[in-house]
TrEMBL record:
Protein biosynthesis as UniProt keyword: yes
PROSITE patterns, per database record: AA_TRNA_LIGASE_II
Domain of life where this protein originates: Bacteria
Subunit structure: Tetramer of two alpha and two beta subunits.
Provenance organism: Bythopirellula goksoeyrii
Pfam families: Phe_tRNA-synt_N (PF02912), tRNA-synt_2d (PF01409)
One Gene Ontology term of the molecular function aspect: magnesium ion binding
Protein name (Swiss-Prot/TrEMBL): Phenylalanine--tRNA ligase alpha subunit
Length: 342
């Protein structure tokens, strides 16, 4: 065979193969083209290679060189066609289909309890209450004694509380046993010890009780504590503040009513359970009352000069009612499918 014929045949084959690789719109079509031109047994390039043997012997080196160039070229063309198909670029060179919807990035959000805490702080802030923090590891004085809970009170039973013997060894200045606080009322004491009246604070945080977990109990939960001490403070002020708070948090267009039921806490007198009207019934929010004169005296206030109210509400309870959550444990299982709904 003359060299010119061999080369013409080779060039035609290369042009054809290139056209087919470029035209392939999916992997299946590309594979058909690959087998047709680059197939090891009966591909057209393989057949052309056989023709090499028939080229006049003096022309063989030139024919072989050209054959190798075309083979390398077509293999590269095939690879780039393959890349184009897997990367989604079309033959006409568009980078991507701009009409496809984008991939939405997963953005987290605040835990529902954190959301509730933030909006409670915001509402109470508008009512003039400053948010303060207190420690979760407390001494017996702040958790019990100063709150008028004497040694003989059942709440003092060490079996009923999380005492921390090892922590006590680490805190050199700890003079009384340490435990995880069972209520945020401890912060009332800490604030009054540090500040002369008037005081108007809230404190939000975790408290710990050795409760068995069920739909409404968990050994750790959150409370919002409120304390206002000033001249001439009455139960009416307590009720107004709680009503305004609930109205802002839940109310919307509905009018909120607050109901007091007689109760007992060692550090308030009188003491009440606080309910709020909710979907035709009453929803229990927590405890409250007028600060017991013994407590005022314990922190060096004069009960003849000032009076005060205090309240402690369950943050989970408020959050659960707001969202219709029926099991408190769901808040702490960190199941994103649950939490992302709120
Ligand atoms: N500390 C009480 C409790 O945890 C609630 C409370 C707070 C009651 C303030 C009265 C005043 O149950």
């Amino acid at each position: 065979m003359a060299l010119a014929d061999f080369l013409a045949n080779l060039d035609a084959l290369a042009a054809e193969a290139q056209a087919q690789f470029t035209a392939a719109t999916d992997s299946a079509a590309l594979e058909v083209a690959r087998v047709a031109y680059l197939g090891a047994k009966a591909g057209k390039l393989r057949l052309a290679q056989k023709g090499l043997g028939k080229v006049d012997s003096g022309d063989k080196p030139a024919a072989g060189k050209r054959f190798n160039e075309v083979k390398t070229l077509l293999e590269a063309e095939f690879e780039s066609a393959q890349e184009r198909l897997t990367s989604g670029k079309s033959a006409v060179g568009e980078a991507f289909d701009v009409t496809l919807p984008g991939r939405r990035r997963r953005i987290g959000h605040l835990h529902p309890i954190t959301q509730t805490i933030r909006s409670m702080k915001e509402i109470m802030g508008r009512l003039g209450f400053t948010a303060v923090e207190g420690p979760e590891i407390e001494d017996e004085w702040h958790n019990f004694e100063a709150l008028n809970i004497p040694l003989v009170h059942p709440a003092r039973d060490p079996l009923d509380n999380f005492y921390l013997e090892s922590a006590q060894k680490l805190v050199a200045e700890a003079t009384s046993p340490l435990l995880l606080r069972s209520q945020t009322s401890t912060v009332q004491i800490r604030v009054m010890e540090a500040t002369p009246p008037p005081v108007r604070i809230i404190s939000l945080g975790r408290v710990y009780r050795p409760d068995t977990a069920d739909a409404t109990h968990y050994p750790m939960f959150h409370q919002i504590e409120g304390l206002l001490v000033d001249r001439g403070v009455t139960m009416a002020d307590l009720k107004s503040v709680l009503r305004l708070f609930c109205q802002s948090y839940f109310g919307g267009d509905d009018e909120v009513h607050i109901r007091f039921r007689p109760s007992f806490f060692p550090f308030t007198e009188p003491s009440v359970e606080v309910d709020m009207n909710w979907q035709g019934g009453w929803m229990e929010m927590g405890g409250a009352g007028m600060v017991d004169p013994n407590v005022l005296r314990a922190v060096g206030y004069d009960p003849e000069e000032v009076t005060g109210f205090a309240f402690g509400l369950g943050v989970e309870r408020v959050c659960m009612r707001q969202h219709g959550i029926t099991d408190i444990r769901a808040l702490y299982q960190n199941d994103v499918r649950f939490l992302e709904q709120f």
